[in-house]
Amino acid sequence: MALTEMDRLVPPLPRELQVEVTGACNLACRMCLVRYRPKLGRRQGAMCFHTFKQIVDELPDLEKLTLQGLGEPMLAPDFFEMVEYATARGIRTGFNTNGTFLTRAAAERLVRAGVDWLHVSLDGATAETYEGVRDGADFARVRGNIRGLVEARRTLGAERPTVQIVFVAMRRNVDELPQLVRLAAELGVESVWVQNLSHSFSDTDPAGSYREIRDFAAEEALWAEADEHAGELFDQAAALAHELEIELRLPRLEEPDWAATRRPGAPGCHWTFTEAYVTHDGKAQPCCMVMGSDRAALGDVEQDGFARVWRNAAYREFRAGLLGDDPPEVCRGCSLYRRVF
Questions:
Q1: Is the pTM here over 0.90, yes or no?
Q2: Which sign, positive or negative, has the C-alpha torsion 32, 37, 41, 47?
Q3: DSSP H or E stretch at residue 214
């Protein structure tokens, strides 16, 4: 039976959910909006357990839960309780962390809780480069914490979580990518995920409050202009990963002409049709790529409940835009929408 227009614009409740359990962070990373906004306190910026449970309980068929957003998830006061609540329900649960709070005790608790995946950001293979990107971090400490996580998993005889290093590739750090692949092997990490900067912020005022991060993306993004050197480094990293048996994911450096081959009526991005993103203060946004609740907010989950927001007019209008060739403004500079993430 063919789907009606309403069926397409109001799909079933998602089986995948990403929750920003906190908007607070201990670092000031150069490619992150947190650096360019007033700092949030640890409790002020956190989602409480009650709200978290309310959202999760509204989704009885939830299969996958990602606990991350703009902030550092392990700063959330109720973080471990959230993890343990979700995994006890049989939901595949994981998150990305800057690794600074990933002590051996924390690692063991996460392994025992049954966390499915754990990704650690490491945007350089040397202290100078990494600490220059992630302002406030300590390279030796994070490297030791990754090693401790791998050891904790082995000591406890567990197969999970899968451990992955995430590398945000920029002009300032891409030279170290092959070296990072080698470091991953030394630490016992099985996977390296390389991604581009997430957004151009082209929908924002060049002289407005997003000016600094917009300018940073223009200067640092590998997709901003053709970069043969980056392509050569990607090839070197891929060869080394094959040799060391490291799984390596590399992004595109140039935007494909995917629109020309997209099936008519297929959405330009799957996010608002199959999964959802909720900020620490309960706001539903189209996805985690947006950054900045003033750029695209679709409803208040804490106030109205998740199911009602998922079906509201704002969500339907946003989905309708993604079904055509004229997407919402905020999507046009998105690396995921443009297939260069």
A1: yes
A2: negative
A3: helix 211-220
